[in-house]
Design a protein that fits this description.
Elements: H1 2-16, E1 18-20, E2 26-28, H2 33-50, H3 57-71, E3 79-83, E4 90-93, E5 97-101, H4 111-126, H5 129-141, H6 144-151, H7 156-165, H8 179-195, H9 202-213, H10 228-251
Parallel strand pairs: 3-5
Antiparallel strand pairs: 1-2, 4-5
Helix pairs in contact: 3-4, 4-8, 4-9, 6-7, 8-10, 9-10
Length: 260
């Protein structure tokens, strides 16, 4: 069965191998969307089995409010889970899965800062960054081992797959997104949060909070991001157009009022 899946992936690669990111960059994406959804759903299930879920209803409602405003802009059904973990982190996976660590709420101190992170993570999904990373692994190492990893996520190959999908830190393998992908998620995420009615100017304060949370060292979430100066410059350049997007959103009645 795994061999048939691999052949199917290779055939699909001939059709969908080249794609374009939301910001116009050419990408190598060998896997069909339904395969990425399968992997994302399974990765999320494994994550839920590893970390305790935060049962604070007030926190859940707050995170759902912010995430819901963002995901309504992209459509589809999204599951949002808050995990008890003190690291200031979040992730989103193909298949409409969003995980938020409770520690993030100590760094993202208002709805707009939380929206910055969640929109950034959703942007990774919309830009097919996980597919791009898995495709690079396929091109270098071949597909059969990777497909076996889907069936056995606790194996060494399965842990690598978790890393490629963006949740590897909890499974012993940290494979961060490239700086180019992170920059794309920053800029596309900024537009996305603005479309939902959040204030893109708060993104600057959020990333400053992230740096301060590391006590002089970058927190894991920022480990391979562009340098602080580069990020601030790129975001500041994008903010005027994002504010125009937000103004249009506000005119359409999009004014999130999420409180924690």
């Amino acid at each position: 069965m795994l061999r048939r899946m691999f052949i199917s992936v290779l055939i699909s690669a001939l059709i969908v191998g080249c794609a374009t990111s939301p910001l116009g960059r050419s990408q190598l994406t060998l896997l069909p969307d339904n395969q990425m959804v399968t992997m994302g759903v399974q990765a999320f299930a494994n994550f839920k089995s590893k970390l305790p879920v935060d049962s604070n209803s007030r926190v859940d409602a707050y995170v759902d409010c912010v995430a819901g405003a963002i995901t309504r802009e992209v459509g589809g059904t999204w599951e949002v889970v808050v995990f008890k973990d003190e690291s200031p982190n979040a992730f989103a996976l193909p298949g409409g899965k969003i995980g938020v660590h409770s520690g993030l709420l100590k760094v993202a101190t208002n709805q707009d800062q939380l929206a910055t992170v969640l929109a950034h993570e959703v942007a990774h999904v919309l830009a097919h960054h996980a597919n791009e990373r898995v495709s690079q692994q396929l091109a270098v190492q071949g597909g059969l081992n990777l497909l076996q990893a889907i069936a056995n996520p606790t194996s060494a190959g399965g842990q690598t797959l978790m890393g490629l999908l963006g949740v590897g830190a909890q499974f012993g393998v940290l494979l961060p997104y490239s700086r180019l992908q992170e920059s794309e998620a920053d800029l596309y995420g900024l537009d996305l949060m603005a479309r939902a009615g959040f204030d893109p100017q708060e993104s600057l304060q959020l990333w400053q909070n992230m740096e301060q949370a590391g006590g002089g060292q970058p927190v894991e979430f920022l480990s391979t991001h562009p340098s602080h100066a580069t990020r601030m410059r790129d975001l500041q350049s994008r903010i005027p157009s994002a504010l125009a997007i937000r103004q249009q959103a506000r005119a359409q009645g999009k004014a999130p009022q999420c409180s924690g």
